[in-house]
Design a protein that fits this description.
Blueprint: H1 2-10, H2 19-27, H3 36-42, H4 60-63, H5 74-82, H6 88-91, E1 94-103, E2 109-117, E3 120-127, E4 132-140, E5 144-153, E6 165-171, H7 179-182, E7 192-197, H8 213-230, E8 241-244, E9 247-248, H9 255-262, E10 270-271, E11 274-275
Parallel strand pairs: 5-8, 5-9
Antiparallel strand pairs: 1-2, 1-7, 2-3, 3-4, 5-6, 6-7, 10-11
């Protein structure tokens, strides 16, 4: 500022800092853009286009937190508690533990922990919120006679559909339930059980190995063959039949299963401020 002031006061005539040059600069209009009259004649400026913000939906990793089973330490605690359910004299030792989805005869999904032991298949209904085992179904591996793997199939006029691959385990040489049991959605007297992979099977690398249906099938077939050989049932032909065929689910309207599966009522999940 001091140098600029000296230049204005003592600069030669005609120099940039002289009074003559300053007066000339004031007389020359600056080129600051079009005038107000020109702007008014040109019309209003074009409107700016507002682009909507892209809202990123929660991915599978975000949805993973909604399932209580995937919370740290939950699956480990559940497995430790279920070991107390195993009867060494009847079941033997635990060979493997699996996290699968059971599909009942009315196409309802149910989250299940499945244990393969030396001589039994244990299907556990476990509450991952209260960390309690609520029910255990025990199936002798020597009684298993057919294991079917394939895509799900429904009657031609059925309004209820499901995609994917499952595995069905049948026992006692019965392929179908009775008419009364088939049409009773709460019946447990069904001579087979059907499993598919957990809906979040590939979302957590730590638990993914417990949800692989292909690995479960391989270990199940091996365990059943071993049980048939070591503990055969008297008066029955030994051996297990492994088939690749569609898995029929005889539902037509399927309103109850639609509500159950869409709301994930068969899983221990957070639902707003509550969890069940």
């Amino acid at each position: 500022m001091l140098q600029l002031r000296d230049a204005v006061e003592g600069g030669p005539a005609g120099s940039p800092g002289s009074p003559e040059a300053t007066a000339a600069a004031l007389l020359v209009p600056r080129e600051t853009g079009p005038s107000l009259e020109a702007t008014a004649a040109a019309g209003p400026p074009p409107r700016q286009t507002l682009r909507p913000l892209s809202v990123r939906t929660a991915g599978r990793a975000g949805r993973l937190r909604e399932y209580f089973v995937f919370r740290p330490g939950t699956i480990e605690q559940a497995v430790n508690e279920l070991r107390a359910v195993v009867l060494p004299a009847e079941d033997g030792e635990v060979q493997s533990v699996w996290l699968l989805t059971e599909i009942d005869h009315w196409n309802n999904e149910k989250e299940r922990l499945v244990l393969i032991t030396d001589w039994s298949l244990l299907i556990c209904k476990y509450n991952f919120i209260s960390l309690q085992c609520q029910h255990v179904t025990r199936i002798g591996l020597s009684a298993v006679d057919t294991i079917s793997v394939g895509e799900f199939e429904f009657p031609p006029k059925s309004l209820n559909r499901r995609e994917g691959i499952g595995i069905r385990i049948q026992w006692d040489k019965q392929s179908r339930a009775s008419f009364i049991n088939r049409w009773n959605p709460w019946s447990t007297n069904i001579p087979y059980v059907t499993f598919t992979e957990h809906p979040m099977a590939d979302a957590d690398e730590k638990i993914a190995s417990l949800c692989l249906l292909e690995h479960f099938k391989a270990q199940l077939i091996q365990a059943v063959k071993k049980a048939h050989k070591e503990c055969p049932l008297p008066g029955r032909a030994n051996g297990v039949l492994v088939l690749e065929r569609p898995l029929l689910i005889e539902t037509y309207l399927g309103l109850m299963s639609f509500i159950n599966n869409e709301a994930k009522l068969g899983y221990s999940m957070t639902r707003g401020k509550i969890g069940f």
